[in-house]
Amino acid sequence: MALVSTKEMFQKAYEGGYAIGAFNINNMEIVQAVARAAKAQQSHVILQVSSSALTYMGPGYLKALVEAACEEAGVDMALHLDHGPDLKTVQLAIDSGFTSVMIDGSHEDFETNVRVTREVVEYAHARGVVVEAELGVLAGVEDEVSSATHTYTEPLQAKEFVQRTGCDSLAIAIGTSHGAFKFSGEPHLKFDILEEIGALLPGFPIVLHGASSVDPHYVAMANENGAAIQGARGIPLDLLRKAASLAVCKINMDTDLRLCMTGTIRKVFHDKPAEFDPRKYLGEARSNVQRLVEEKIQWVLGSEGSAKK
Ligand code: G3H
Ligand code: 13P
Ligand code: ZN
């Protein structure tokens, strides 16, 4: 089993009306949880790493962990740089064995976004690595960049952007946002934009960022055990499932894993105040994250069985 690019998995996902889950990994337990879920569900997965997570773990540790996970799971996976800020970070990721990179020029003007994305595509394609780009701005915070409002992706611009940059997939803004506080009113996504882009770019994989559902179960578990996370709200499952059945081939989730891990650890600390073995609370968190990822594969993504030869 190997770390592979997303090309083939996206093609199969597009044709099959499902999506591949991209789960942010920040430590060994999360890597193991995602890999075990992928094995149990025989599903492709994307292990994605933000530039701050890459710095936190260190490229050497990360590479060894991910290779071990892939081997143990027995399914092909992609290792993806999430929200790559510049060519330098992309180069570090590719030199460290990443099979897919994102260059996020979405906060730049259109022409600058085209130029930086084009540069990254040239560097990555020469090394067999695929590139995700982004057009449109999600509300919320990602790494150090934040925006108070959405700027929805304009379909004709998306077509021009893909043609001019040669990127392999495109993240679009249709109303999702990063973090745990996605909607103050009724959840709503702009499916008209997604459908228009799908019609203008047939067969081209679209990516949905900010796609955590913010499971009330884990928010409550955290709050009942000392957290102060009020007003959290995510994307309803049926909206994500609909997106996966259309042109969306990659769905990003980070917040759900963080809430699950934190809620579980807080509960162990509260229920067993004499416990101080990290394996006891991290191990329980790992089991819950595995269960969560398996549920995502079955109920949100529809990717179960996708890794079967
Ligand atoms: O979209 C951003 C991801 O949730 C990564 O966040 O930079 O805190 O690792 P991070
Ligand atoms: P969430 O904050 O909804 O989990 O989104 C994660 C993401 O888009 C990472 O790039
Ligand atoms: Zn994102």
Give the arrangement of secondary structure elements.
Layout: H1 7-16, E1 20-24, H2 28-41, E2 45-50, H3 51-57, H4 59-73, E3 77-84, H5 87-95, E4 100-103, H6 110-125, E5 130-135, E6 140-142, E7 145-147, H7 155-165, E8 169-172, H8 191-200, E9 206-208, H9 216-224, H10 237-245, E10 248-253, H11 255-271, H12 278-301
Zinc ion (ZN) binds next to loops.
Strand order of the largest sheet: 1-2-3-4-5-8-9-10
CATH class: Alpha Beta
User: Whole-number radius of gyration?
Assistant: 18 Å
Give the percentage of residues in beta strands: 15-25%
- What is the mean predicted local confidence, pLDDT? 96
Helix share bin: 40-55%
Structural class: alpha/beta
Please identify which CATH superfamily we are dealing with.
Aldolase class I
Quick one: how many beta strands? Answer: 10
Low-confidence stretches: none
Number of domains: 1
CATH topology call: TIM Barrel
Note the run of SSEs as H and E: HEHEHHEHEHEEEHEHEHHEHH
How does the major sheet shape up?
A: 8 strands, parallel, barrel
Global morphology: globular
Number of helices: 12
